[in-house]
Design a protein that fits this description.
The protein is built from twelve helices and 18 strands. It has four domains: 77 residues, no CATH class; 69 residues, no CATH class; 116 residues, no CATH class; 75 residues, Nucleic acid-binding proteins (OB fold (Dihydrolipoamide Acetyltransferase, E2P)), CATH 2.40.50. It is of the alpha+beta class. A hairpin with a 5-residue loop joins strand 15 and strand 16. Helix 6 packs across helix 12, helix 8 crosses helix 12 and helix 10 crosses helix 11. The protein is 34% helix and 30% strand. It is elongated, with a radius of gyration of 29 Å.
Length: 391
């Protein structure tokens, strides 16, 4: 591997390579890395338009050897963020749920056998399926230290970082800022009420921002956004009340997955940072699904019959208990399921975001489109619905 290195970086490069060599020796590995300076490249002075570019002298450096790394094919599985309410577990998609012991594991490194006041530790897995919890400085022994390519491109990499700096993000909206979990959930409820919920994946498919990004922007708008006329949502009393129900529900969860464990832990904290928005916004949807599932079970117990007259418009009092969305060539369509006081089920399909809350009872003026059957359950299909009290 050959790189052209400015003279001012040669000493730093050699220091890094010597450090890698010492680590190779410590781990009893072969192929200690080394560098050889094999020539000099001179770029003569020249003009680019009205700009004078002075002579540039670079050293042609070849890097040899491999990055130190323990054998047996170790790979990263998860990050354990240690909090007073337990560990937040951020797993890779391939990892699945970890053993439950990691939810309350101390900040211990099983490589250097030390317990420190660490914010994070990391779970690694080898080809044999063995798991190991290690600290930040020890991770490199398993996954590999800075590669020789990274060292050789040090200056270019640093320049790339400088070019990528976002002034607003660094100075105003970073993840060091946060709020109480109930406030974050209340803003999430408000945003979802107005704009619906879109995960990152669904947002990309529909060419729109994810709900977590919108909530973050409303919680902590940047100066440039405010200067351009952005106005954060005002959190209504109804959203605050629902947020309190969501938080109370999270605290009573009996977690069946790492995701549910993370939600319960976050709800128990006094302060959460902005990078938790995605979790707590999704908690609103998880709560709605749980409430809807309970209502659906109750609806299944009652016999559903058709109501209304096909083709006629009428007013109905219905409780909203379930929604689901699907993609069509015309955009996202959402199925709303309701039940009346007798347990009879109604269905309304619309491509417009309604902002209806699962569990609430509404007065709808609608036209009965048809009397249908779904998996043996009678459903009354409604169309041209307008909800009393909602624009």
């Amino acid at each position: 591997m050959n790189f052209q290195i400015p003279a001012r970086n040669l000493e730093t490069l050699n220091t890094k390579i010597e450090k890698l060599g010492r680590k190779t020796h410590k781990l009893n590995l072969a192929n200690a890395p080394f560098a050889s300076v094999d020539g000099v490249v001179i770029y003569p002075a020249h003009w680019v338009g009205a700009t004078f570019v002075p002579t540039k002298k670079l050293y042609s450096v070849n890097l040899h050897g491999v990055s130190p790394r323990l054998p047996n094919g170790w790979s990263f599985v998860a990050t354990l963020e240690h909090t007073p309410a337990g560990n937040l577990i951020k797993s890779t998609p391939e990892a699945g749920d970890l053993p439950e012991s990691y939810r309350t594991a101390k900040a211990y490194c099983h490589h250097c056998n030390t317990t420190r006041s660490r914010k994070d530790t990391y779970v690694l897995r080898n080809d044999a399926g063995e798991l190991k919890q290690v600290g930040r400085t020890c991770v490199k022994d398993f996954l590999g230290h800075a590669t020789l390519e990274q060292i050789g491109n040090y200056e270019a990499f640093a320049e790339l970082l400088r070019d990528s700096e976002d002034e607003d993000r660094l100075s105003f909206g970073g993840d060091d800022w946060g709020c109480s979990p109930d406030y974050m959930v209340a803003m999430s409820v408000e945003v979802i009420k107005h704009e619906g919920f879109f995960s990152k994946k669904t947002a990309e498919m529909n060419d729109r921002p994810a709900t977590s990004s919108i909530v973050r922007k409303n919680l902590r708008p940047t100066p440039s956004a405010l200067a351009n006329g952005f106005k954060p949502y005002d959190i209504s009393e109804a959203s605050v009340e629902k947020a309190q129900k969501v938080i109370a529900w999270l605290k009573t969860l009996s977690p069946k997955s790492d995701y549910e464990w993370n939600l319960k832990a976050l709800a128990s904290l006094e302060f959460v940072t902005m990078d938790r928005v995605g979790f707590l916004a999704s908690a609103v949807v998880a709560y709605d699904k749980a409430v809807g599932a309970e209502l659906a079970r109750n609806a299944e117990k009652a016999e559903s019959n058709h109501f209304g007259t096909v083709g006629e418009r009428a007013v109905f009092t219905l409780t909203f208990f379930k929604e689901s969305s699907f993609d069509t060539m015309y955009g996202v369509q959402t199925i709303h399921l309701f039940k009346d006081a007798s347990g009879n089920i109604a269905k309304w399909v619309t491509g417009t975001h309604t902002g209806l809350e699962i569990g609430n009872t509404y007065t709808l003026k609608a036209t009965v489109k048809k009397h249908d059957d779904y998996k043996g359950v009678k459903q009354t299909v409604l169309t041209r619905c307008s909800v009393e009290g909602m624009k």
